[in-house]
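Illustration 12: Pimeloyl-ACP methyl ester carboxylesterase.
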Amino acid sequence: MKTRNNTIIIDGIELFYREAGNPNNETILLLHGFPSSSHMYREVIDLLTEDYHLIAPDYPGFGLSEAPSIKDYEYTFDNITSTMERFIEALELSSFYLMMQDYGGPIGLRIASKRPDWIKGLIIQNANAYLEGLGVWAQKIGKFQQENDLVGLTNFKDYLMSPDGIKEQYLHEHIEEDKIDPTSYLTDIAFMQRSGIHEKQTALFTNYGTNFPKYADWQSYFKTHQPKTLIVWGIHDKFFSKEGAEAYSKDLENPQIHLFEGGHFMLEEYPQEVAKLIKNFIK
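Figure caption equivalent — predicted structure in token form:
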């Protein structure tokens, strides 16, 4: 069944989202990371479309969604979460599995901890909810902040949004470059280079620190509600190391944890393996 490319107006903003599969089947809501979009889930969606109903939105300022100015839209994790909540309500998704990667983690876990009744299970790919597992790049950002090195922080942030920085997030020292489809990072680069996007991405990047105080809330949600959880993790991610995956066992009783020789975007390398795990997990 072919993926449908849809748009919907939420709070006056046109949001793009991919939809596939039969709405009568179990629904999976897929929340993407930085600096990507729903495009990162395309292969997983294709592999799961016969068995599930899949919804993958682009946040405001990402991918094919509208990008209002920073005067007209607050690019914070709290506000994007609110937009995604209204998106979920508009599509009448009352019960679903939630798949999250990178930025999708703090957005999705805000939703899950607020509306646990919506969540049938969590599928987590390289998205931290614990201080354990902050990788070399996350530590580098933290050091710039601790030392109040605004020049260093700005330069590194700009690198992560540059063509070279985006490409490096897809590649790692343990993979040959020809194993990654260049369409993926070239797509992200093209989206990032659109007029005004750098300013909006900078606003959200700067807001990332608001996620750390939420960790205790999310851990309490895990401990209290014990959501059924599948964790798939690329261990060569420079943002989030494998300790981030293992830390979920501190509060979840029986998380399924699978570590891969992949990077930040390990779905580019292991889509079939992850799709099989998802099928077994939901069944």
